[in-house]
Amino acid sequence: MRFLTAGESHGPELVVIVEGLPAGVSVRQEALDEDLARRQRGYGRGARSTRIERDHAEVVAGIAGGTTTGAPVAIRIVNRDFANQPAQPKSLTAPRPGHADLAGGMKYGLDDFRLVRERASARETAARVAAGALARSLLAHFGAEIGSFVVAIGDRRMDPAANVSEMDASALWALAGRAEDDPVRCPDPDASARMTAAIDAAKEAGETLGGVFVVFATGVPAGLGSHVHWDRRLDGRLIGALGSIHAVKGAEVGDAFALAELPGTGAVDSIVRTAEGSGLGRPTNRAGGLEGGMTNGRPVVLRAAMKPLSSVRREVESIDLRTGAPVDPAYVRSDVCAVPAAAVVGEAMVAWVLADALTERFGADRLDAMLAAFDAVRADARWTPPAAGATDVMDAAIDVDAER
Prior knowledge:
It is globular and about 75 Å long. It is α+β, with helices and mostly antiparallel strands. The chain is 32% helix and 17% strand. The chain has helices at residues 29-40, 47-52, 101-108, 114-120, 125-140, 169-180, 189-204, 234-243, 256-259, 339-362, 367-379, and strands at residues 2-6, 13-19, 58-61, 63-64, 67-68, 73-78, 145-153, 156-157, 211-218, 248-253, 272-273, 280-281, 290-291, 294-295, 300-306, 318-319, 326-327.
């Protein structure tokens, strides 16, 4: 599977083409548009997201009667703000620190940094969310779901900030459910109030704020990904997908950075027999649902750190490359905080990587064939846990249904 996006921030539209979705996947128009709307919400967003754009996914190819056909899916998202743009916008000759302006101008030999800014803008993530919504539609047929919540904005954090390694699927979804209607996608009301106050203070000071969000997936079958080659290990693919989101500068699987401070025995997830004795369980999930580059049947849990947005109203230093003079580059309308929106984009990217891994394992042409292959793996007698006291641990495996 792969997807390609095209379009500029203030151009007429964004376009995404998705290739590799199997035939037979049910896709609801309402689900596409709701994910686009979720990306636009969040305390600290600018006027464009909250008042101007009302994103709608217009499917123009690859879906017939609400079902994928196996052909590439094409979706366009109209930019309503295009109508407000001047016919001849002023050239930008002073690169903005923290943006793609200077590096992109050097790479492509461009004198007008507006040409870099337009494509580098986070507006492009609307197209990613549309692609991610298609991936979620595929995952749903296998019982896998994706959620997210925010654990920190600036120095305001949940208490505990992100203690999710002890949580099962139901606990994670309880947090995500409370976060869904919160202005900053934080499931802790007290922490949310502190976060919104910090955003207000940053806005007053002409500053911006970053933060940390959690993305998780439940019901993911064991064995997605691979240990045999570096580029097939799912840890790296998921971290890379999150790291590709605008302003995200770090990502981890499970409790990665906290585990770096512990001895080995404190970093493993013990394998135990479930209470009823019919399967195997893990009392913790420090590994974030991934071992050896593969899913292990536990919830997949990741965190990502987003830096403060670089478009600030306060003065910053740059050089006008047309005149050579020091200058404060022109302020471009932006958000004060986009962490809640980035969490939704993170869901889309995680959904995409997991859906891609799913097609690798179970096929990619037809949904019914994929489901048959999936059911065959689940029914394999070798995956039945041995009786208590048995010594052949190679005959035991995670019950992939335990987290559903």
